[in-house]
Structures are given as C-alpha cells and as structure tokens.
Amino acid sequence: MQNLKLADRTAIVYTAAAALLLVMAGGAVPGRWGRVAVHFAVIAAVLALTRAAPRHGVWAIPRAVYPLPLLLFWWGQLEQQIPLLWGSYWTTDWLVSGDEALFGGHPTVLVQTLFTPWFDEVMAFCYLSYYLFLAVPVLLVFRRRFDSAIAGYGAILLTYAANFALFVLLPAKSPPQILQQYPDLQPSPFTGFVLGDLIRSLQASDSVTGAAFPSSHIAGSMVCTLVALRFLPRVGRLLVTLLLGMSVATVYLGYHHALDPIFGLLLGAAGYLAARRFEPGLRRATATDG
User: What span, in angstroms and rounded, lies between the C-alpha atoms of 96 and 269?
Assistant: First the structure.
C-alpha cells in the first residue's frame, strides 16, 4: 500500500462510496449488484496498477494516465446516482433566485443581447477548450514526467470527486433542463458557424440531469490550470486565458446558471490547495518547462 498516491486513494474512496450509494438505493437502480461488482472491479484494477513503479516498466504509462478513463467512468454513473439521495433537484430554485438577486435577472437571458455569429463562435471555442485542460497530465506523461502526472492527477481527481459528490448532495438542473418550470429562461439559440452545432450535439448526447452546480467544466479546468502552472508554466499561462473565456461561455451559451462557474472556480482552487497538503509531488521542487 506504500505505492498509493493521492490520486489512487481518491480513486478508491470515491469509487467505493459510489458503490455504497448503489447498495443503499435498493431496487431503485436496475441491475445494481452488477454495477456494484463493476465498481469493485475498478478498485481492484487501480490497486493492481499501483504496483507499477511510476517511472519504469511497461506499466508506467497506464499507471500514470488511468485517472482519465476513470473520470469518464465516474461521469457515466452520475445520471443514475444524482436522484438517489433526495429524489429531486431541490437546489435549482436556489440557483435561479440567487442569480436573479445578484444580476437583476437570469444571466443566460441577459446575455442574449450580445448574440452575434462571430462572438457565438468564439464562445463555443472557449467552451470546447475544456478538453485541452484535461490533456495537461497527458502532456506530462508524453514528456515522461510520470511523477508529475501522478501528482497532478491527485489534485484533479480530488476536485472531480468533490464536485461529483456535490452533484449528489446539491442536485440542480441546468437552464435548458428547467424551461417548463421557468418559461422566462427560454433561450434564444446561439448561432456561430461550425462549433455551435458541435456543442449542441455533444450536449444532446452527454448531458447529465442535475449536474449543474458547481460547474465541473470550470472546477476541472481550474484545477488543471493550477497543475499546469505548477509543472508547465507556459501552458498554464495560456490556459488562464481560456479558463476566463470558458467561465463566461458556460453562461453565455445557456448551459449554466451564473453561480455554477463562480463556485466551480472556488472548488477548483480549493481542490488544488487541499491536494497540496496530501501530495508531496505538488510541493516538491521539480524541473518545469518555462
């Protein structure tokens, strides 16, 4: 067990907690025992991978990058997990009221006066840049900085685990999911040229009901930016600009309440700072690229 890093411990604890939630759900989840078995198989795979030395042997790369497919697995379980605790999306009303109190109306509606095809396309690019942030640890692996990648994933997994847990504890629907309840939020469809249609397609196939608060897009991108600033400063400085654009784009394109990215930024920063306490690799002096 001495090879377990923060990323490994987070992977095991969150996956086990998700399995426990399924057990407690009773018959509310079809095939729950099969799903529980899959969760424990994932834990077994993580434990097997941790036996590999971070810098040596054929297992060095999968040892360093396994958190990325694990995140996809966690995300894929949320649609069924989020309703299990409360059976409702009770935080939604608070977010709508909070946005209106802070901004004098709902920001997703207020920004529609700015809609133009070229600006819509810029916002769509910023929104899609999310996938560039997830490539930060992969870039470290490509440069054979396996220890740095594992340390970075410690902060990233801790942040996403906290974010996904908050989805279950504070379930909230995004603006497009509450149009019947709040007809005033009816969006004016953004246009753009190419990327707008791509985003609509992705949202139609990959959106999770109730996973609005805090924005995992922003929390994840924030912690990835901080990891990049730690190990790849030049890349990190570029990501800061994209992060600011993405924070605006999540609201501009109508996919989030304004409070979602605000708290996403706070969660991403808190996740990184918490990870530094438990992951020496985030504190230890190491070579950086610029």
Answer: 24
* Residue 60 placed within a domain: no
Q: Looking at residue 286, what is its pLDDT?
A: 58
> Bridge partners of 172?
211
* CA gap 38, 36 in Å, rounded: 5
Q: Which domain holds residue 184?
A: 87-282
Q: Which whole-number Å values give the CA distances from 99 to 139, 196, 276, in the listed order?
A: 37, 25, 32
Q: How far apart are the first and last CA of the chain?
A: 35
Q: Tell me if 18 is assigned to some domain.
A: no
Q: Tell me the pTM.
A: 0.94
Provide the number of structural domains found in the chain. 1
pLDDT tens digits, 181-205: 888 777 678 888 889 888 888 887 7
Q: How many angstroms from the chain centroid is the CA of residue 232?
A: 20
Classify 30 as helix, strand or coil: coil
Residue type, 94: W
Using an 8 Å Cβ cutoff, are 146 and 54 in contact?
Answer: yes
In a domain, 135, yes or no: yes
* Residue of 248, 262, 178, 274 lying closest to 213 (CA atoms): 262
Residue 264's closest CA among 170, 179, 175?
170
Q: Which two tokens stand for residue 40?
A: 């424990």
Q: Which two tokens stand for residue 165?
A: 């847990």
Indicate if the alpha-carbon torsion angle 230, 231, 237, 239 is positive or negative: negative
DSSP letter for 254, please. Answer: T
| Residue 256 DSSP one-character state | S
DSSP E strands in the chain: the ranges are none
Q: Rounded to an integer, what distance in angstroms lies between the CA atom of residue 56 and that of residue 54?
A: 6
Residue 19 included in any domain:
no
